[in-house]
Amino acid sequence: MGWKQRLPFLRWSMVRMAVAMPGFLKTGQIGDGREEATARYVEANARRNDVDHVLDTIDEFAREKSMLMNVGDEKGALLDAAVRRADATLALELGTYCGYGAMRIARAAPDAKVFSVEFAAANAAIARRIWAHAGLADRITCVVGTLGDGGTTMDALAKSGFAAGTLDLLFIDHDKSAYLADLLGILERGWLHTGSIVVADNVRVPGAPKYRAYMREQQGKLFDTVEHATHVEYQTLLSDLVLESDYLGP
Ligand SMILES: C[S@@+](CC[C@H](N)C(=O)[O-])C[C@H]1O[C@@H](n2cnc3c(N)ncnc32)[C@H](O)[C@@H]1O
After folding, report:
1. What are the residues whose beta carbons fall under 8 Å from the beta carbon of 78, sequence distance 6 or more?
2. Cβ(233) to ligand 1 under 6 A?
3. C-alpha distances out from residue 149 to 96, 119, 144, 145, 185, Å
4. pLDDT digits (tens, 9 = 90+) for 208-226
5. Taking burial as the number of CB atoms within 10 A of a residue's CB, which of 3, 8, 11, 118 is the most buried?
6. From ligand 1's centre to the CA of 97, what distance in Å?
7. Mean pLDDT by 10 residues, the chain (250 residues)
8. Architecture per CATH, 70-247
């Protein structure tokens, strides 16, 4: 294991990321062009129509060039297993960024249609370039918006086929303070069915305490949750939590 994985705090791209956090919350980008650079790096280095190689190339970029806020390979393996267990044909991700998480979902569920909601149009454009390179453009759709916009984005999803009991897998990985409200919005629409799986990233870092408290309170009632102890993406010093929750039905 190299020093970049053991001592992530010494990486300039990690320091730059920490300093950029307030801007990131507004724009969805770090501010130094690393997201656009990711798309260029993939187009230049990853084999076309080879999802495994595109994902590996993004992991390599995040490790060797600039740290990225993807779910990453370690937590991504937890996501993959949940997607397979859900046997998903319809999946929804909240928070697209560069399109990495949605590609992992599409790879683990080869028959699924994957939708990903992203508020930053610039990120949506980058993700679409990467999905096209991976040969997944026809299976993953990015909807630019947020679930908290008063119904516009949820209505757009409804027009694309989201209806009562249709959503098999939900991956929540966007604004940590919106995790619970957006899950409740989805429950209100009745899109989950008994056996649907909800995966939430970053529950410890940066942290989604209200979401975690809700899942603890709902244990054995609406949801059955496993808390996976893991690490923040692309390093091994900082711990994180991924929550995997089975919906027990209305
Ligand atoms: C941690 S990144 C997502 C990483 C992605 N899931 C992956 O694994 O590759 C968070 C993303 O959520 C977006 N975002 C933040 N708040 C949002 C919201 N309320 N609705 C939709 N997207 C949001 C940000 O712009 C950013 O691109």
Report:
1. 199, 228, 230, 242, 244
2. no
3. 17, 10, 11, 7, 11
4. 999 999 999 999 999 999 9
5. 118
6. 5
7. 57 68 86 96 98 98 95 97 98 98 98 97 98 98 98 98 98 97 98 98 96 98 97 90 96
8. 3-Layer(aba) Sandwich (3.40)
